[in-house]
Amino acid sequence: MPAALSPFSQGVLWIFLSLIVNFQYLSTSFPPATAPILNRMRHAEIELKFCPGNPREFQAHAVERGFTVLTARALERNVLFDTAERTLLAQRQLLRMREYNGAWVLTHKRPPANNDDTSFYKERVETETHVDDGDAMGAVLVELGYSPAFRYEKFRTELTDGEGTLVLDETPIGDFAELEGAPEWIDRALERLNVPREMCFTDSYGRMFLDWKARSGSSAENMTFDEIAPLVAQ
User: Fold this and answer.
1) CATH of 7-233, one of 2.10.50.10, 2.40.320.10, 3.40.50.150, 3.60.130.10
2) Element (H, E) at 20
3) I need a surface site. Which of 42, 90, 91, 212 has the fewest CB within 10 A?
4) 194-206, pLDDT tens digit by residue?
5) Is the sign of the CA dihedral 159, 151, 38, 126 positive or negative?
6) How many other C-beta atoms lie within 10 A of the C-beta of residue 198?
7) Residues 123-154: tens digit of each pLDDT
8) Hey, what's the torsion of the CAs at 60, 64, 66, 70, to 10 degrees?
């Protein structure tokens, strides 16, 4: 059972969720003194995915090219929350609870105001905070009208060269890599890692899962190892 929260704690969490889910409105409507607080919680996320082949071999290749391991391979669990009407999905927003490497992180994402869907890179405005008790936070989200809409898992390894981040994700539907950093850095990293630009894509894991379901005919509803592995083995 999730840990019970005091009325005061629930009030604080409700305020935080209002901030992140309605950030675009708040950033222009709140007094200037509030802006520094909101800006500390958010940042621009610019990323690009590609298929690395064997993740162990690619990790060794990346290390040879100047990357170092930031976080060793660890299981990452994610839950996306939404309303019954899928309001956030319709608005291209994301509300996610993530458990990774012993920590819980609550994240909200949305496209930037000047979003360009034709861009080679994927850019999102990301607002996030660490949470002490992910189960309790999930219970609060449910009380606020959200419910788990999609779960996905992966074994993630994080590497860095001090300027940007390379992650290797081993998922139930395949192995993928992701570069996150400034566009100029991503371009240099692709060249350094010998990754052709035509191999890159910007799909989310939710989109990739739906495409995989269409190709495979799978009845799985979540991208988790427990749900997909038995179906693949059949």
Assistant:
1) 2.40.320.10
2) helix 7-21
3) 90
4) 999 999 999 999 9
5) positive
6) 7
7) 999 999 999 999 999 999 999 999 999 999 99
8) 20
